[in-house]
């Protein structure tokens, strides 16, 4: 209720400063995002209004610092969302961004989770990997890459015939699906971004996109972003998250079902909080340690990576599988390196 009053006050504040509120674009634990019209520059902007809680304020200030740093080096403005301005209003950090289109996740959701065509996924992969490489070259690790944090630049769509049965068929039985009119995308949400020399939190990344070294407590660095990219690309091809789980043991079991056994040298180095997931420190405690039959079924139904890709890709599957196998290697030291990813033939 108090936050709503702050929003109302902010609306008045914006009106006084010759901006118009157009709509509420989104809402989360951090606060709200409003679409506004900037009369001075004659453009739509998105204003992220952050709750006054200290942890959200700190994340917002990190995001502002990262955005300004990225903006100094992103000369074409094509890698990451552009910051226009920011201000502190009654202890609420407000960040003004350029207005972009929907996230890749929102696009999938509104399209009944119909997957993107492989050629479009390839173009998305190129841009994502180039943007991640751009960040890594500046010694920045995003740590929260996911379809929700990748936005289409334009909201425009085209309607095409869908020859595949969607994962969740629409109620109207539509045989058409929407595709983005433009493939241009940008990364957003840098509140969790970390410099490589900073102290690293024990756990990073949203669950479905979390790398094995994070779960095992082995420490993490740049490669955790590349694992997330691999998970994202599978989701764009299939329409569903690769590892749909909320629990560590089940998550590791899903990884083994899709990618094969975890390397023994990683199991041997697992920290005390992760030791419980293994039997005598030799193999994963699965299915013995499964929490329920439903959990066992969720793991059992997953296909191997190659088969999963072949279910959804009608051509050029080989190149995509090679790329995904490189991004989804367990050992972060063996995962595709940032420059190799950006210049790989697989993403051309």
TrEMBL record:
UniProt-recorded Gene Ontology molecular function terms: ATP binding; protein serine/threonine kinase activity; protein serine/threonine/tyrosine kinase activity
Cellular component aspect of the GO annotation: nucleus
Keywords from the UniProt entry: ATP-binding, Kinase, Nucleotide-binding, Serine/threonine-protein kinase, Signal, Transferase
InterPro entries (UniProt xref): CLK_kinases, Kinase-like_dom_sf, Prot_kinase_dom, Ser/Thr_kinase_AS
Catalytic reactions on record: L-tyrosyl-[protein] + ATP = O-phospho-L-tyrosyl-[protein] + ADP + H(+); L-threonyl-[protein] + ATP = O-phospho-L-threonyl-[protein] + ADP + H(+); L-seryl-[protein] + ATP = O-phospho-L-seryl-[protein] + ADP + H(+)
A Pfam family reported for this protein in Swiss-Prot or TrEMBL: Pkinase
PANTHER family xref list: SERINE/THREONINE-PROTEIN KINASE DOA-RELATED, SERINE_THREONINE-PROTEIN KINASE AFC1
UniProt similarity note: Belongs to the protein kinase superfamily. CMGC Ser/Thr protein kinase family. Lammer subfamily.
Protein name: dual-specificity kinase
Species of the source: Aegilops tauschii subsp. strangulata
The organism's taxonomic lineage, starting at the top: Eukaryota, Viridiplantae, Streptophyta, Embryophyta, Tracheophyta
């Amino acid at each position: 209720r108090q936050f709503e009053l702050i929003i109302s006050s902010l609306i008045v504040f914006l009106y006084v400063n010759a901006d118009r509120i157009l709509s509420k674009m989104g809402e989360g634990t951090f606060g709200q995002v409003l679409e506004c019209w900037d009369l001075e520059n004659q453009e739509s902007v998105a204003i992220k209004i952050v709750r006054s809680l200290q942890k959200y304020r700190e994340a917002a200030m990190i995001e502002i610092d990262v955005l300004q740093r990225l903006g100094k080096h992103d000369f074409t403005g094509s890698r990451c969302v552009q910051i226009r301005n920011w201000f502190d209003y009654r202890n609420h950090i407000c960040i003004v961004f350029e207005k972009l289109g929907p996230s890749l996740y929102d696009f999938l959701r509104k399209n009944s989770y119909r997957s993107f065509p492989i050629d479009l996924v390839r173009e998305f992969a190129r841009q994502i990997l180039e943007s991640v490489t751009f960040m890594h070259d500046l010694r920045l690790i995003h740590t929260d890459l996911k379809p929700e944090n990748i936005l289409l630049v334009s909201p425009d769509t085209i309607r095409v015939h869908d020859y595949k049965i969607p994962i969740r068929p629409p109620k109207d039985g539509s045989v058409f699906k929407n595709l983005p009119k433009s493939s241009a995308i940008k990364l957003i949400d840098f509140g969790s971004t970390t410099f490589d020399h900073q102290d690293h939190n024990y756990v990073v990344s949203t669950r479905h996109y979390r790398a094995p070294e994070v779960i095992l407590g082995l420490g993490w660095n740049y490669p955790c972003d590349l694992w997330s990219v691999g998970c994202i690309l599978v989701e764009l091809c299939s329409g569903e998250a690769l590892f749909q789980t909320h629990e560590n043991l089940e998550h590791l079991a899903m990884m083994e079902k899709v990618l094969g056994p975890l390397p023994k040298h990683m199991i041997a180095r697992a920290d005390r909080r992760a030791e419980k997931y293994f039997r005598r420190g030799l193999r994963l405690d699965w299915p013995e340690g499964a929490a329920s039959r439903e959990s066992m079924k969720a793991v059992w139904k997953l296909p191997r990576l190659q088969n999963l890709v072949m279910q959804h890709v009608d051509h050029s599957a080989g190149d995509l599988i090679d790329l995904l196998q490189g991004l989804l290697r367990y050992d972060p030291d063996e995962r595709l390196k940032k420059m190799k990813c950006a210049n790989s033939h697989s993403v051309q």
